[in-house]
Amino acid sequence: MPRLEPGMARIRVKDLRLRTYIGIKEEEILNKQDVLINLTILYPAQDAVQGNDIDQALNYRTITKAVIRHVEENRFALLERLTQEILDLVMANPDVRYAEVEVDKLHALRFAESVSITLAGHR
């Protein structure tokens, strides 16, 4: 993850728990499963800091709502694909300089709490 430079802000959305169709086995195709999503977003925040105005800030609520809608309304065979599509949604905002998305598929392995994939993008 890039170092946080002066004037930049780091937004973290932690433990966003959603339900979606994820997997390749028949039971996974037929039944929604819980996934846990963590987002890290870096953007230049000087104007928001000085102006104290939501219109000058990156609206993390709007981004999160788009992620929720996309995850809950689609089906995914692979965790990698789901993670990439979320990253693409976040990076679609032109103010985002760097984003990191981690998606945990809960109880994917017998003796593990979860299996996760992390992908990052920058401009």
Automatic annotation (TrEMBL):
Superkingdom in the source lineage: Bacteria
Dihydroneopterin aldolase/epimerase domain mapped to chain residues: 11-121
Coiled-coil annotated spans: none
Pfam families named among the record's database cross-references: FolB
The reaction(s) this protein catalyses: 7,8-dihydroneopterin 3'-triphosphate = 7,8-dihydromonapterin 3'-triphosphate
Keywords: Isomerase
Annotated EC: 5.1.99.7
Family: Belongs to the DHNA family.
Protein known as: Dihydroneopterin triphosphate 2'-epimerase
Organism: Geopseudomonas aromaticivorans
Gene (name only): folX
